[in-house]
Specification:
Blueprint: E1 2-15, E2 18-24, E3 36-39, E4 48-51, E5 54-56, E6 59-65, H1 69-77, E7 83-90, E8 102-108, H2 112-122, E9 127-134, H3 143-146, E10 151-156, E11 163-164, H4 167-178, E12 182-186, H5 189-199, E13 205-208, E14 224-226, E15 232-234, E16 241-243
Parallel strand pairs: 8-9, 8-12, 9-10, 10-11, 12-13
Antiparallel strand pairs: 1-2, 1-7, 2-6, 3-4, 3-7, 5-6, 13-16, 14-15
Bound molecules: flavin-adenine dinucleotide and FE2/S2 (inorganic) cluster.
Amino acid sequence: MIETRATVLENVRIAENIYSLTFATEQPVPVRPGQFCMLGVTGFPLRRPLAICMAEGERITVCYQVKGRGTEMLARGYQRGHTIPVLLPLGNGFFVRQEEKKVAVVGGGVGVFPLVSVIRAYAQEKEIFSYVGFRTRAAVCMQYELQRSKELTVTTDDGSFGKRGTAVQALMENIGRVKPDVILSCGPLPMLRALKNAVGGKIPAFVSLEERMGCGVGACLVCVCSLSGGAHARVCKDGPVFDLTEVDLNG
Ligand SMILES: Cc1cc2nc3c(=O)[nH]c(=O)nc-3n(C[C@H](O)[C@H](O)[C@H](O)COP(=O)(O)OP(=O)(O)OC[C@H]3O[C@@H](n4cnc5c(N)ncnc54)[C@H](O)[C@@H]3O)c2cc1C
Ligand code: FES
């Protein structure tokens, strides 16, 4: 993990309320798919956690939805040439075992962004079947990156783009034909619960969780989540990626 002052290369809108921020770090950073960074936004004591979408040497891209005051400031106040404090890479990330050849990727909303890094990392050596869901056409983004998959299904809640429905529904419509060896997922809790109900325990599946964070490095316990069986884990340090059967998604 390094703490660095990165230089903003680009910060542009890519969909309704969604921005893509590319910055250069002071040194190349090795990043595993599914890892994240903590960005320091001027005026806010707590850094904001964002998944790393793309990493090439010193060049890192994150994509974010403007949600509250921190991300609003990020969208308005940081342009090319500005510097931004960053802590990265953080968390465990996704691992795909050598024998797992067919990988199903299931993402919803901003949960699609860490999965872009999975697709970029594994598209050459694995068969990637991606199922990604957005609220509506205006939120659809990253299609160029998602199309690296062997097969891509985009869904929208209202049917205004791609297939009407959810990413989990699209996965389940295809699961008998595709027979994935492993499922990697990130998205809102209801989506992860639906995934757990549909495939939990039947196919190996790993999910990236989102929790409010303080330090991002395992020290403050702000991000603790419940595991099945009553144990607890820090999402920032022990996760954010967990075995779907091990996390309690009802807590
Ligand atoms: C590991 C991880 C990866 C993430 N990756 C992405 C991503 O790639 N793209 C994206 O758009 N969003 C991502 N998020 C969610 C993102 O961190 C929040 O949307 C963001 O912190 C909101 O900040 P804010 O100041 O705009 O909102 P405010 O509500 O003003 O924030 C107040 C505080 O709550 C925290 N907070 C608010 N919502 C969340 C949330 N959903 N998750 C965690 N902390 C939150 C903020 O960090 C801040 O400390 C990720 C969260 C985690 C934990
Ligand atoms: S955010 Fe501090 S322990 Fe996870």
